[in-house]
Task: structure prediction
Amino acid sequence: MSTSVSDSVSSRISADPGEALRPAIKDQDLAGLEARFERQGIPAFRARQIFRWLYAKSPASFDEMTNLSREFRVALECEWDLHVMEERRSETSGDGTRKWLFALRDGNLIETVLIPEYGRNTLCISTQVGCAMKCSFCLTGTEGFVRNLSTAEILDQICQVKRGEPERKITNVVLMGMGEPLLNYDAVIRAIRVMSDSAGLGISSRRITLSTVGVLPKLRRLLEDVNVSIAISLHAASNEIRGRLVPLNKKYPIEDLIGACRELSLPARRRITFEYTLIEGVNDALEEADRLARLLHGIPSKVNLIPLNENPGLPYRRPTETRVAEFQSRLRVRGVNAVRRATRGADISAACGQLKGRRETDPVASGSH
Ligand code: SF4
Result:
């Protein structure tokens, strides 16, 4: 494991707290920036030029945008904040997973995780500081909700990681870090559009996965707004058990959630991923596997089995390897495409359910879905 601290990011986190913040340029989509420039008498093509800089090159400052005139770069610097977060710490796991702790301009902290795998690099990003969903097995859920991230704060996680790992191309993005993305809908949708825009980050939308515990009104609308892959944090096949793990289940019970999934207009060959965290003695009975197989029957889907990443202070344990294998084979026998997801980054608390952020003034900062 290694730790590094970067002080190279040109941000205003340490600026005088009384000083007003400039707007964040990454809150603008391309059309918005073009319209703003037009009103200021700046040719619209400049917006596309700046977008290329922001997302293809991720510069540390406007001054690096060398195909813009010096005068224009200074004007941009005066008007906008380029970055809205600053690296506080990064740690690299023995398996290559790297976790960043970022400080936002108001001192809140969030975490972002890069998972290198053969042939692809997946970035797990946060969409909120904390989370209101209070899932009982998740460390993020224990700290409660602080606030939504802005579009710029969602996107800047990707830009910061691109700068920190320039030799790694980010091929996949999962909105599975801190927060419930569908409760920060507008900012998340804007960010996804910039991620998938060829003038922005240029990541294919099917390689962007939004993970939700099932905020149904927004889930029903999602594919009309963006063409992303969907993961449902299911974790149980009965309301009795899921209600203990995911409090939102009381508002949107399993039958409604699965009904909504059946009605989604999935693109051809697209499947829904169902995340199932296996917890000893809670949801790992083979009868629960049978129920799960019946529940998902007829839905183009895949089940990701995630043996629990234990957290001190939470009353849940990981099942034995034998039980995980039995649960998986029971699903497979019943025709479910069940995949055991490898645990990545557990030695640096970067695995699922282990992300946690605090304000900078809090004594401990360590840092899902
Ligand atoms: S599992 Fe996801 S939705 Fe539930 S508390 Fe954790 S971050 Fe929030």
Summary: The pocket of iron/sulfur cluster is lined by residues 131, 133-135, 138, 140-141, 178-180, 213, 233, 368-369 (CB under 6 Å). The chain has a mean pLDDT of 89.
